Amino acid sequence: MEHSLPTNANPDAPFPSSTPSSSTGSPSGDAAGADQTGPHGALFLVLGYLRLPELLAFQRVCRLFRDVIDGDSLLWQHIAVEPPLSGKLTDDALLKVTAKAEGKLKSLALLDCWKITDAGLLQVADRNPGVTKLYVPGCVYLSVDGVMKVVKRLFERGGNLKHLQLRGICNITKEHLDVLNSLLCKNNPRQISQPSFYSYWRIVSFNSDDGRPVDVDMCPKCKNVNLVFDCTRENCRMMKSRWRECRGCFFCIARCEECGGCIDFEESGEKAICLHLLCLQCWLRRPKCNMCNLPYCKWHANLFGSSSMSAGFICDQCRELESSSYHSASSNWETFA
């Protein structure tokens, strides 16, 4: 949802009145007076639904919003840092943002925050022992030993960490995974795990609960700790022997980028413009480029806009090829002339 907030507004400026100073023509003088004293109370109900960038922008609208947002720790109990803000977040900035929760932080999601270190995350854990969800996918400066120290520190301080996402962190071993599962399941008995599908791995949600305390698992094929996916095909899931064969990590089982189903060796997956593999059924359903007759997968189609999701579009690669061919032909014609 787009917001046109004046992010460069002066925070010390008084809140502008939305009504004229005179109550002439107003159906109710009391209503006009209430509007002039400040924003409508319903605006404050919106604050709890704002993402972090929008909440930070709201702070700069006026002095009243700044004081209300800074003084309400409930607004900062669930913090999610996503791109493009991720690349700007440092340890000091993270400590300042999480300090607004006043030690009552419940969930923290750091998506691709490559400047966050083990020391910074440990300080956050020390100041917020009540964290129940910790997501650090793509935080490449974090080490598995640093994450282990954070989880152990939360456990020592009587915390109740329930969910942990570690994808993208290197050198996780089976021993690390066993220790994490034992700590997270000590106070929370492990539930029956729901299937983990490849098509949903990009989605990070605080409300999702698939019964897994840790998002990574040991691949039954290569025995490495990674994201392990189940097959979405009904015929594979109905046959237990087949289900075991097509369950594995991305490196061991080729999967359709669209539906997440396994692609057999006999079924050479159809390629998309973005070089992702698609099963034949999904490849036939996607709109194709007029020139190369290839589709985008749904993720890249959303990135490139609605033009790539309708029939009769021309992909960027073909546009560049057509443009270079035109310039080459023009230069050849000028040389000939």
From TrEMBL:
Residues 1-10 have a biased composition (Polar residues). Gene3D superfamilies: 1.20.1280.50, Ribonuclease Inhibitor. Pfam families: F-box-like (PF12937). SUPFAM superfamilies: F-box domain, RNI-like. Residues 11-34 have a biased composition (Low complexity). Residues 1-34 are annotated as: Disordered. PANTHER family: F-BOX PROTEIN SKIP28 (PTHR13382:SF16), MITOCHONDRIAL ATP SYNTHASE COUPLING FACTOR B (PTHR13382). This is F-box protein SKIP28. It comes from Phoenix dactylifera (Date palm).
